[in-house]
Amino acid sequence: MSDYYDVLGVSRDASAEDIKRAYRKLARKLHPDVTDDPEAGDRFKEVSQAYETLSNPDKRAAYDRGGSVPGAAGGFGAGFGFSDIMDAFFGQGGAGRGAGPASRTQRGQDALIRVDVDLAEAAFGGERSIQVDTAVLCPTCKGTCCQPGTSPETCDICHGQGSVQRVVRSLLGQVMTTAPCPTCHGFGTVLPSPCLECSGEGRVRARRPLTIRIPAGVDTGTRIQLASQGEVGPAGGPPGDLYVEIHERPHPVFHRSGDDLLCTLQVPMTAAALGATIPLETLDGEVDVDVRPGAQAGETVTLKQRGAEHLRAQGRGDLLVTLEVTTPRDLDDEQEELLRRLAELRGEVRPAGKLSPAHQGVFSKLRDRFSGR
Ligand SMILES: [Zn+2]
Ligand SMILES: [Zn+2]
Prior knowledge:
15 strands; four-stranded mixed beta sheet; 9 helices; binds zinc ion; alpha+beta; single chain
């Protein structure tokens, strides 16, 4: 039989902590579930036997004296829990061993709500009053979970430990494991008279009004974190956070592309031909759009810094105004006469059938713009 200290790779005067650390390291490497090495299984058993002995002060003393170590050859004895292996893989408290009773008081969960906002609110920010369905501190017991005048009592079954030991069969043979006490659910205490309002939860469901600030520049999918505005935890535990997810409603006129705003401005044919300054009502005030003489349908005029504000930087996106040239209808006699005269002067009474190159027409430009190409 190999020397247990050699098996674990520790010196004979190693501390309990050193032994534990060495065992964990080896168990993580040698456990049959994590390695394909055919010899790992035997090594793992050896390592586990060594640890079982050296981790127990009495057994270690007996081993050091050269005496026989009861139970050393046959699987795991008392005092060596499955949770030691779980600990090796999952860190402290893998199966709750040694963790003591759980606290009833726990942090509340984070919550996520969706808020629909208009384009202007998203682009320039604002304030919103919303209703949040959440859990709040129970007004009757104030989180103690007990009827007024009563208090939790130590659990008879686990004597306040919160856990019970039992033997289970596993791939490692019969092992002792600890499980949360079924009577007190691991809390170590029971409630002789649970609060009637919250059924012993320490919190109740409620609808709570909340005013939230929408930062300028948010977009669909942006999440705003509101610290401690989530639900109150069990037994009046500290509240979680509330996340507000923005959903931007489509606007009938303006379209958004990142922090740029897009719109289409109708320009009368004459204004497009002669050039004009056309007022445009934006989401935040009026601007003048300068249409150059001879402007074509589908052309875009860029108004710098008239788009949505940047969420995480100074400044704003641009406003991109696409021109839609409108053809005059319902001409009166005089207007018709003028246009016929113009057509004659320009030689356009019977215009030549000129084709535009494919992919450069007005419609493909519009399509490209709205599909973000
Ligand atoms: Zn209550
Ligand atoms: Zn119990």
